[in-house]
Amino acid sequence: MEISVPRMALVLLVGISGSGKSTFAARHFAPTQVISSDYCRGLVSDDENDQSATPDAFDVLHYIVGTRLRRGLLTVVDATNVQWEARKQLIELAKSHDVLVDAIVLDVPEEVAIARNAARPDRAFGAHVITRQRKDLRRSLGKISRDGFRRVHVLRGEEIDDAVITYERAWSDRTELTGPFDIIGDVHGCRSELETLLRTLGWTVTPTGAVHPEGRTAVFVGDLVDRGPDTPGVLRLVMGMVEAGTALCVSGNHEQKLVRALNGRKVRVAHGLEESLTQLAGEPEEFRDAAKAFMDGLVSHYRLDGGALVVAHAGLKEAYHGRASGRVRAFALYGDTTGETDEYGLPVRYPWADEYRGRAMVVYGHTPTTEPEWVNNTICLDTGAVFGGSLTALRYPERRIVSVPAEKVWYEPVRPLTSQYSRDPGVLDIGDVTGTRYVETRYGGRVKIAQENSAAALEIMSRFSVDPRWLVYLPPTMAPPETSALDGFLEHPDQAFEEYSRAGVSRVVCEEKHMGSRAIAVLARTPEAAAKRFGVTDGTTGSVYTRTGRPFFDSLTGELVDRLRDAVSPLWDELETDWVVLDCELLPWSAKAEGLIRDQYASVGAAARTALPEALAVLETAAGRGLDVGGLVDRTRRRLDNAALFRDAYARYCWPVSGLDGVRLAPFQILACEGRATAVLEPHSWHLDVLGRLESGILAPTRHVYVSLDSEEERAAAVDWWSALTGSGGEGMVVKPVEHTPGRVQPGIKVRGREYLRIIYGPDYTESLGELRGRFLGRKRSLASREHALGLEALTRLAEGEPLWRVHEMVFAVLALESEPVDPRL
Amino acid sequence: MSPATDLGFLLHKHPDRVQEFGQSFGTARVLYPEASEHRCTAALLLEVDPVRLVRSRGKSSPDFSLGQYVNDRPYAASSLLAVALADVFRTARTGRCTARQELADGPIPLELGLPALPCRGGADLARRLFEPLGWQVEATAVPLDDDFPEWGDSRYVRLTLRGEVRLADALNHLYVLLPVLDDAKHYWIAGDEVDKLIRAGGGWLGAHPERVLITRRYLGRRWALARTAFARLAEIGDDVEESLEPPAEEEIADAQHDSDTTTGTDAAPDADGADGAGEAAEESQAAGPRTPLNTVRRDTVVSVLEEIGARSVVDLGCGSGQLVSALLSRPSFTRVTGVDVSARALAMAARKLRLDRMPDAKRARVELFQGSLTYTDARFAGHDAAVLMEVVEHVDPPRLPALERVVFGVARPRHVVVTTPNVEHNVKYEGLADPEGGPSRMRHPDHRFEWTRAEFAAWAAGVCDAYGYEAAFRPVGEDDPEVGPPTQMAVFRLPAQPPTP
């Protein structure tokens, strides 16, 4: 006997103890799909037959079942379920997860069950228990079909052993269709506009059907009918397409109501229903019946393309995708409302899309708006064709919008058409960022963010960061090379070259490391571009922020952005973009870090400068008295020299600035622009070339040399270059593979100069190089790789037009990782 | 008259030898650059080994900041020197000296020199601490960097103390006061040292006019031994950690009491909000019956919440939990939720509320968690009232719409109580008013703005307009006829029934 159950469902096995439920379950379902009450009783009491543990056991059972159903897994409950109350609780649990429930009843004679139990030493209870269960079951069987099951399968005798389970997919499940699709917004009887739109999209249209030469499939979001001039014409065309397999259609609330009206139910004739009824009255009865059957049979939503695309008339929140229940259907048809009505008497819609965090794209209609707008990977295509707006299609997977204008105002709107959302995309949800998180990147797999790191990042982000709409990227940390064995050096270019050479990189670029503050510049060409790409509507057109997302200057940021926009203006045409994100160094260091320099570095210098000469004087006087002070005099003198070098090392990177005068930016990478995450796509030579052609007083060049790693001469020349650079006070250089290199290769290695390292390792580090050489790079390198992957993911999501929270998730993760404990000197 | 070289007996260190004393963080040496009948100088040189210093801090302090490696400890007369001094001159500090007991028992002419003394509070504080102990104090500030005169003075002073003081006392003065002056953000000595230091103050600390400051600086720093991930983020952002501290417990001294403050706390808040705040608050209490503004504010908020009959309240930006505590003490508030973005502030609140030993019935009424006012958060919803007490002014103006959306749009409690400084009142604070008549300074370094009454009203009107609230205003503190109250308050209310079309 064939038993057909939904692919995603709760299945209750019903039968008395000893009826063979566990055996049946084991034969037909995977062990993880079956949750048995005996097992749960064992979990909470160490004794599967401890009846006093039953209430707790069912708590656990309900928790497990609920979790599985929330995650969309077929779940089988192996318990007697002979009592109505027990079944009712499980049915309600399934309904709360919008999952269908089937029952499989194993109706076994009492004697068989008693005999089976008697053969099992662990079933100590008497036959009277079985008798009572049997009584409960018999009473249940009469009315079990009214419990709320989708279907009740009753098996007796041979049927139990012969049963075969088959699975039905949900009506909404068309995941096997991969498109390409043309998804079409609310038509409302505008047949002519529909034909024009289809032809614009390349379809060949006849009154009863349409085909696309490239085999595209049309998907209608519902509300084909009412209000407009030719509801029958629209129905005829769409019915033909659906029948021919060139279109899918979900139900809209207007189809729903029209069907009820056609069925003679009492409905309020309003919102354009009258037009449909009048127009259909003029059609032959066969057509009316066919149309009624068509509309009645429309499902409320479809999942397409492996689940990546969901189409529903009024949208659908993620928890409802692929589910089946009255409220899922109601959501799909009418949307989410707050229960309030607005000044026009229309229901106030709940902005479910603002909270949408699903991976599937949700395309819908229902709410007329002036222009389709992406909100968290959802889009509403109802552009009010019947109200004189336009009829709109979304091409999938291209994500391209195609619209044709309405030929006239066919129907006066109750409420004037406006932009649908007064949303503030700068508002994110705490769930996007807090707690222990695992974030997926395409460049470095899954990255774990620990709770305490998220907590630290949340504070920085909330109290100090620039608007998250501008905060589209944070730069990763960078590791130094393996420690040099060369006398007097902790770091040297040789180790960087060697590492890349071993990793199979043939060509690297050595970029001057500007000693300033790392800066990310986000620049939009116009306020319109800022609004369109970044959702920023307060008139600002960019931001320049630090590696922890803080603004550089309180009141000068606007002016800095303006100057930079001027400086990079050739990029708009060259890159065919109206925004750009740049990775830079802002100079001088003291512009941002003056507080730190004074508090930390200059203080150390001042203390050393004041204390050491006195110590030296004491020692020299004591030596003059003939006291044996050993090597202390020499050592103290050397420390005094080191302190002077230390002081010079930080002072070199400080110069006074007034306003923005004296401030310069050295851009070295174009991180992203319209449609392209250039950080991933372009080699460093491209970045340096494009940026090198910009000429402006505010931009500082980034000196660089290329090195073919198989050439000893080029390596030697680069070492000389580095020596000269650091010898004249430079911080050092960064070595990077010219081409973006996936895999475990470090994205860059910083090789810092001998004197610069004094402000990192302390004035006297050169005295203890031996000990310092034992430094451990593993954590730093791993951190650099993870942060790099997160950063590239953020840029790619930005370039691909993903919603703010998806970009922010990555940026936040970088900041969180930065608070991981790693030797800060690396 | 004894020869000056008797100093060697008093210190128990021979004037003609160089003696070494190993310390966990380096080596201390005692030697005498001069030793004559008339004048004898003993020098204590502490050579700090940075590597050993890091190791000596132990695993209990997970400090991964650069300050651990690049710091002034090898040069400055810091708390480390105090520890070395205590060890090296252990016997001398007790005042015992079998060879010259009468000399040890009485005051002798002494001169103490500390070339680089870290001194938070400047030369003036050094004078205030040492002069009451019988020292003539010469304290000169050391400039930060001669090539950058605009940077001003460093935190170091060159200190010379002269006086007729018992040697044991002199040593103990240094032992106790060096760490007080140093007041290092992160203690460089073990926690139990603190107790020893207090004991060393035995005879004189109780009568010292600055005893409050001295003990507070000790005890106040004890809990901050461990640093957090947060500190690391401050540093990589080229920031000084202090500038990122949670703005908890800020308060400024009341103008009227400025003149009679004895600790010299500026009327203007210093960079260390918590410290200055505590001092200021105490000051005003000590000076008279006037209630500190933060108490007035808290009481006003509590009575407003009682007036509107709120039973569940979420305190958004609860800081160290003062309001939460006040609400919990009133049984009419059945649910009190404290939210802050600073994990440190929350830890402080949990400690002050004694959450871990609270009776179950009370514990069940309170919840604390980390949250941010620029992220929507389902946990904010479901309260009768939300309080934003001295919070909005810590939010950057461009982020205010996000806060409005989170609180008024999404959490949407029936009442929202907002307090914020009234900037017009700042002229009443000596340290804030601009003598030139220009705009006054803000009350706390973390304030992103301070509003006039008109600006506050305009902001409130915008919120009401966007989210359907009604606002009523009331003063907090004395309502000056000209410049208004020190704190302004708005009580937002959702109309009971949504307007029907």
Q: DSSP strand (E) fraction of chain B? A: 15-25%
The parts of chain B where pLDDT drops under 50 for at least 5 residues are: 222-228, 248-288
What does the largest sheet of chain B look like? 7 strands, mixed
Count of structural domains of chain B: 3
What is the helix content of chain A? 25-40%
As a percent range, the share of strand residues of chain A is 15-25%
**Mean pLDDT level of chain A:** 90
Q: What characteristic shape of chain A results from the CA principal axes?
A: globular
CATH superfamily (homologous) name of the largest domain in chain B: Vaccinia Virus protein VP39
CA-to-CA gap between the ends of chain A?
70 Å
Structural class, from secondary structure content of chain A?
A: alpha/beta
From the spread of the alpha carbons, the general shape of chain B counts as: elongated
- Oligomeric status: heterodimer
CATH topology title of the largest domain in chain B: Rossmann fold
What is the architecture of the largest domain in chain B at the second tier of CATH?
3-Layer(aba) Sandwich
Q: What topology, given as strand order, has the largest sheet of chain B?
A: 9-8-7-11-12-14-13
- Based on CA atoms alone, the radius of gyration of chain B comes out at 27 Å
**Largest protein-protein interface:** A-B, 94 and 82 residues
**Helical segment count of chain B:** 18
